Amino acid sequence: MKECKKCKKVFLPSNGLINYCCLQCRNSRTWTEQDKLKKSKSAKSSQKCLYAREKRSIETKMTVVCPVCKNNFTTYKQNAKKTCSRKCYIFHSKELNKNTGGYRKGSGIGKKGRYKGYWCDSSWEFAFLLYHIDNGMPIKRNTDKFLYYHNDKPHNYIPDFIVDDKFYEIKGYHSEQWESKKKQFPHNIEILGKKEIQFYINYAIKTYGNNFIEMYEK
Known about the structure:
Elements: E1 2-3, E2 10-11, H1 23-27, H2 33-44, H3 47-60, E3 61-65, E4 72-76, H4 86-96, E5 113-115, E6 118-120, H5 123-134, E7 139-141, E8 146-150, E9 153-157, E10 161-163, E11 166-170, H6 176-184, E12 189-192, H7 194-208
Parallel strand pairs: 11-12
Antiparallel strand pairs: 1-2, 3-4, 5-6, 7-10, 8-9, 10-11
Helix pairs in contact: 5-7
């Protein structure tokens, strides 16, 4: 009988397992912090690593101009960044989507999709959008954020649509936080719940059929 060098369990040695009781103990390794540091330094100073680092810095680095702040910044050709910072990226995305329906939260649980450049988070929003587009009424996605406070914490509120300078929110539920949004919103806004949205759903079904949601762009 012999004591395993790894787990200290007493075992009967066999062919291939002389000092360890099992393959798991034999094949496992315990690295000290000194061992890890030594291996890390060795890997970083290896010719393969140095060559890859040098190649990347020379061949793939490039200097571009940020389209927002016009400052020069360095990026890589693979997965190149379009802007120099997160702040500029958000502004740039907002400008790109200004005339195509705009960026949406994507937090709804309804059937989501895009139609003629407008993003919809539910069939209710899609029915509302269809009615206004079909009747030539100017409608656009709202992308502006409005600050409000709930439980003494700041939050951003983004209403769904703007029609004739009036904000519209399509809401399937109400909560205490939602009431905080509504009370603190600084502009004229109309809330469309289940009862109010039914008119637009009836229009969409009558015009395009029960499966009007399939009109989303593929």
